[in-house]
Amino acid sequence: MSEIIRNLDINSLVHGGRGIGRHEGKAVFVPLTAPGDRVDCRVVKSKRRFVEAELCEVVEPSPLRREPPCPFFGSCGGCQWQHLPYQVQTRWKEKIFADLMIRGKLISSDRLKQIVPAPEEWNYRNRVQLKCHFSKDGLIIGFYQQSSHHVVDVDKCRLVSPEIQRTFNLLRNELPEAPCLDCLQQVDVACGDDGEVRVVFHLLPEGLQQLRTWLQAFAERYQLNACVQSNRKKAPDVVYGEADLIVKIDQPEIALRYGPGGFVQVNSAQNRNMVAAMLDLLALNGTENVLDLFCGMGNFSLPLARRAGRVAGVETHAASIANACVNAAANNIGNVEFHTDDASVIMSRYRVADVLDLVILDPPRAGCYKLSHEFLKLQPERILYLSCDPATLVRDLTPLVRGGYEVLSGQAFDLFPQTWHIESMTLLRRIGPVLA
Questions:
Q1: Is the pTM of this model over 0.85?
Q2: I want to staple 188 with a disulfide (CB 3.0 to 4.6 A). Which of 106, 150, 200, 202 is the partner?
Q3: Catalytic residue (choose from 41, 183, 295, 388)
């Protein structure tokens, strides 16, 4: 039987969202806790310097706590911080980001800007993945339990937009009557900024034809855009409506089309705030040569191109590059070019003589450590790094700061209320000489 630690005082929150206390000289990490809690917890993993535990009981609740509004909180793995008021959430995200950056010796506190809270703490998500499991009792549709592939049966998510919740309700009501439900693995539901909704059924091949027919009738009945996907190496097939949705950014407004499988920020309002903050921070003069790595469908490339001399966007996802080209043409932006390629391959083609005034980075959560050394060779004047993981950000920036760059500013943005995830924007400038 696992050890129970009793009356553990939680004094802080850490990257990853867990509370931390100390017991017998070791740090103890406990999810779903708040600073000021006194808890009983069960040891899950014990190492030489730390312990991972699960919450058994809140013996004395912190005054910071609130009652989580969602009845599925704690079982569904989507949220970790609903028990904290939103102002407390943003305060801790700002602190965690600052602590990681300062401890990493990347920036002084006076260069850190205040966090930008989300305009809304609920109903902000423009896309969601609904996990499906067919059991002897019928279809279960919902979200994975934390650190598990067990599907929690959920009938409402407070994070999603009203349009997505409406579609979720329709699916829950009608999907149980569909054929071949044991072939349905996941349903992606997304909503554009104009209210259009797209559903994508992820299917095993043996159920493709029957579920395709059912989905086509369902989508036509409720005027939804619908696709099916049974081979991840191929683009989804459209069964009704269109594949692309639209997000809107910048002033004058740019409408960006993106397809299923293409990346788009889950919080449209905060994405617009980030684009505006980026443009203010960079203060381009119209002559700059800009390279946008991990550019997607042009979310940053196209607003930048309006204000720069020339922009090149690079992305491995071919469908996103196709969207980016369409978006540039539709918005009459001609000083931008897009390439389907790996970022490191593109970087190897540049030379120091190819003057780059600015590089934009918006990599996936794993970051882009190898590129840091390429930048030291190429020596762009400025680098703007947009990150969704402060830990990999610190790792990737360290060789740059040691090699001849300084961090001018860092700012956290909350795109994911009720969770521990932190988006950020960090600007670096070459102070030379660069040491590769």
A1: yes
A2: 200
A3: 388
